[in-house]
């Protein structure tokens, strides 16, 4: 998810009291044309956070509060701490984004251990808390990384986890949805002060990863779509039961699937399957909008 997105904000009507908070990557044409309301648009920032925020508000500073900035796993904890400190300490402040997040969190932790910079991660919540602007702190976590994160006993890491205010929880492997509630309980133990948003991948991932974590066999087209529908149903049920505070959509751009630049990567979808990947993703986007409108 580290790629930089040009995000435009939804201009939907005011939400009702029970509106579902939705964070979305990319441009959501279908969401703009429906009754859905996008709370914030998440964008990947490979360089300066200030430049990233300015680029994604298109010269409209009033949109700052709807932009969620995301730092990628290619940056070490020390680099991330420096980037956040520079951003929140700037005078005058460059803006007030919705949040600053780390994606993906486990990969950043691994990088910190490899580069002996993990100690920097514990200082991030404090830097944000004492800033002129105080965006929320977020982290993206995946189900197959939970054992790794649970195994690390580190004070700096614990301080960071305690300071996280929102976790985006995504399933790398769609069949893992069968243990969804257990995963959420584990996420909540790791991040005791965070609200959790259920991540939904609404694109064809059959080429990206095998169908199961312990297999090399990809999902069939029918399995991929059926498991997507099941994951949406389970995620929305977790919202209803109070396990989730909202949802996060990736890659966004509902209604504009054919123009997503992710298709340029062969790992995302083989060139020979691109028409099929796009068509399946379009079906997923349409089904997702219907389910969200019907909730």
Characterization of the model:
- Residues 1-19 form the signal peptide.
- Keywords: Signal.
- By secondary structure, this protein is of the alpha/beta class.
- The chain has one domain: TIM Barrel, CATH 3.20.20.
- 37% of the residues lie in helices and 15% in strands.
- The protein contains 10 helices and 8 strands.
- The protein has helices spanning 29-32, 49-56, 77-89, 105-114, 124-129, 146-151, 155-163, 180-190, 221-240, 274-294; strands at residues 22-25, 40-44, 67-72, 99-103, 136-142, 166-170, 195-201, 246-250.
- The protein has an 8-stranded parallel barrel with strand order 1-2-3-4-5-6-7-8, surrounded by 4 helices.
- Helix 9 runs parallel beside helix 10 (274-294).
- The model is unreliable at 1-17 (pLDDT under 50).
Annotation keywords:
295 residues, alpha/beta, 8-stranded parallel β-barrel, 8 strands, globular, signal
Stretches with pLDDT under 50, minimum 5 residues: 1-17
Distance between the termini: 27 Å
Question: Percent of residues in beta strands?
Answer: 5-15%
Mean pLDDT: 87
- Helical amount: 25-40%
- State the order of secondary-structure elements, H for helix, E for strand: EHEHEHEHHEHHEHEHEH
The major β-sheet equals:
8 strands, parallel, barrel
Please provide the count of β strands: 8
Biggest sheet strand order reads: 1-2-3-4-5-6-7-8
Write down the CATH class.
Alpha Beta
Question: Would you tell me the structural class of the helices and strands?
Answer: alpha/beta
Question: Do you know the CATH topology?
Answer: TIM Barrel
Note the overall shape.
globular
Total domain modules: 1
Number of DSSP helices?
A: 10
CATH architecture: Alpha-Beta Barrel
Cα gyration radius (Å): 18 Å
Keywords: Signal
Signal peptide: 1-19
């Amino acid at each position: 998810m580290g790629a930089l997105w040009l995000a435009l904000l939804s201009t939907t009507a005011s939400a009702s009291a029970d509106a579902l908070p939705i964070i979305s990557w990319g441009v959501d044409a279908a969401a703009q044309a429906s009754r859905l309301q996008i709370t914030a648009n998440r964008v990947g920032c490979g360089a300066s956070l200030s430049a990233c925020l300015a680029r994604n508000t298109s010269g409209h500073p009033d949109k700052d509060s709807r932009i969620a900035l995301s730092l990628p796993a290619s940056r070490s904890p020390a680099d991330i701490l420096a980037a956040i400190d520079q951003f929140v300490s700037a005078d005058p402040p460059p803006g007030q984004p919705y949040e600053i997040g780390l994606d993906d969190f486990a990969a950043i932790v691994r990088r910190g251990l490899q580069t002996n910079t993990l100690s920097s991660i514990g200082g991030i919540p404090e830097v944000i808390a004492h800033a002129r602007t105080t965006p929320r702190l977020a982290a993206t976590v995946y189900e197959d990384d939970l054992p790794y994160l649970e195994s690390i006993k580190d004070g700096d890491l614990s301080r960071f986890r305690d300071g996280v205010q929102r976790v985006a929880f995504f399933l790398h492997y769609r069949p893992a949805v069968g243990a969804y509630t257990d995963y959420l309980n584990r996420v909540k133990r790791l991040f005791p002060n965070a609200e959790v948003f259920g991540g939904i991948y609404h694109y064809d991932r059959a080429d990206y990863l095998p169908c199961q974590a312990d297999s090399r066999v990809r999902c069939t087209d029918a399995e991929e779509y059926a498991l997507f529908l099941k994951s949406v149903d389970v995620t929305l049920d977790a919202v209803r039961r109070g396990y989730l505070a909202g949802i996060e959509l990736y890659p966004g751009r509902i209604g504009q699937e054919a123009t997503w630049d992710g298709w340029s990567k062969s790992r995302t979808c083989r060139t020979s399957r691109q028409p099929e990947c796009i068509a399946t993703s379009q079906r997923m986007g349409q089904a997702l909008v219907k389910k969200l409108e019907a909730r």
